[in-house]
Amino acid sequence: MCTDQQHQEHLDALARIEKTFRNLLETRPPVDVPMVAISATTAYILDYHNRKYVYVSSANSLTLTLEDLGTVSVSANALPILLPYPPGLRIFAQGQSSNVMIYIRCTDDLIW
Does 7 fall in a domain? Predict the structure, then answer.
């Protein structure tokens, strides 16, 4: 049998666990980064803005170069592409001598 103090400690621990679960389930509004200009020489530095996922889309068809990792194709005006890469990764627009605009959305929710 528990003492009153032990019982209270158990209740406090359960309250902390409940608070942690509520924080995990709580979704925050997405962060939409204003249009970002990138090119073959101008990088976008991947930043999650304290969210779980980062998506990219563009009005132009692009091939993005992910520093040393490889490339990702972005179709014009299509569904956003998930970028599940480490923060701080430099992203370039392959073969683009002038700046092109990309749209970045950081969110806690999977889009599809």
Answer: no
